[in-house]
Design brief:
single chain; 339 residues; mainly alpha; 16 helices; disordered C terminus
Length: 339
């Protein structure tokens, strides 16, 4: 107002616009500090305050900033998540079986081999029923005296006295290149035929009662002798197979190892266990020997060699062109005969 009053209007305003303005003390101190920093050697360039970006009409949109590089720890490959496999109860039971005693023997010797030896020894023990039925048939149906019955049974049991001969023949004379399976099949077929013939001979209305006593006794002796031959031959062959399988298992286990010893003991346990079970079943059915016709007992006994025949067909034996050594069936047969 003072300038405008003295100089008048426009002249006063122009002079006010051209007059130098005095900076504030705070501004002076900031300017002075900035000049001192710029005068020092190695000082960084002053940073300018970031001004807000102005939006220009028609310009391209601003590009996004590049992401910061990830640290090595972040780029490290993470391990895959652990997955829990749920096993079904059936698979779990199968795994437990493989770890059991029976599962180890099945893996070592094979299921067909174990089944065959168990069936053969079961059939041998089941003969207790047929032996009792034979005595009742000879006494009641044919009317034989006790002395004649004992003579007939002793003659029919002769095949058990020459068991070592079967082992020597099976070792020295292969059939189609095989030493064990053909003889086992032959023994089962002979036993099936013998017991079937005894069942037919003892059937009601058969010609056994009308035959002369000597002829009937000779026919019965021949059939009983063939049945004993079947059981004795199959027993020797299976003994040889068990001895060879135990020797192979011991050799594959490195001699006298724990696995080889377990395999040998397991085979003996299975053989004697099956024999005991067959004897218990035959003795347990002994009450039927006097209540059931003899032909039914003989027909039931014919089922045992039929089972042996079916089990022997499942065996697999590689062909051999040369006779077996003494480590095979001969020693096994001699040992079984001595026992």
């Amino acid at each position: 107002p003072i300038v405008a009053g003295r100089c008048g209007g426009r002249v006063g305003l122009s002079l006010l616009a051209t007059m130098p303005t005095q900076p504030s003390p705070r501004r002076q101190r900031e300017t002075r500090a900035l000049e001192i920093d710029m005068a020092l050697p190695g000082s960084p360039a002053p940073r300018r305050a970031a001004s807000p970006a102005r939006k220009v009409v028609g310009s391209a949109p601003a590009q996004p900033r590049a992401k910061r590089a990830a640290s090595p720890a972040a780029t490290r490959e993470r391990p895959p998540p652990r997955t829990t496999i749920k096993r079904s109860p059936r698979k779990a039971a199968a795994g437990a079986l493989e770890l059991s005693w029976l599962g180890r023997q099945r893996a070592a010797f094979g299921l067909p081999f174990l089944t065959c030896i168990c069936v053969v020894y079961f059939a041998q023990g089941f003969r207790a029923l047929s032996g009792l039925a034979t005595q009742f048939f000879l006494k009641d149906s044919l009317g034989l005296e006790p002395a004649a019955i004992q003579s007939l049974l002793a003659t029919a049991a002769l095949p058990w006295s020459v068991k070592p001969l079967y082992g020597l023949v099976s070792d020295a004379v292969p059939i189609r290149g095989q030493h064990r399976k053909p003889y086992l099949v032959l023994a089962a077929a002979v036993g099936l035929a013998a017991w079937s013939g005894l069942a037919l001979l003892a059937a009601p209305g058969a010609a056994a009662a009308s035959l002369p006593p000597l002829t009937a006794m000779a026919l019965l002796t021949a059939l009983l002798l063939l049945s004993n031959l079947s059981t004795a031959l199959s027993d020797v062959v299976v003994d040889a197979m068990v001895a060879e399988a135990a020797a192979r298992e011991a050799a594959s286990s490195g001699g006298q190892s724990a696995a080889g010893t377990e395999g040998e003991n397991a085979l003996q346990s299975l053989c004697w266990g099956a024999l005991a079970v067959g004897g218990l079943c035959g003795s347990g059915l002994g009450f039927a020997a006097s209540a059931v016709p003899a032909c039914a007992i003989f027909g039931l006994s014919a089922a045992c060699p039929a089972l042996v025949l079916a089990a022997s067909h499942a065996l697999s034996e590689p062909p051999h062109s040369e006779p077996r050594g003494t480590a095979g069936g001969s020693l096994a047969a001699l040992g079984a005969a001595g026992a």
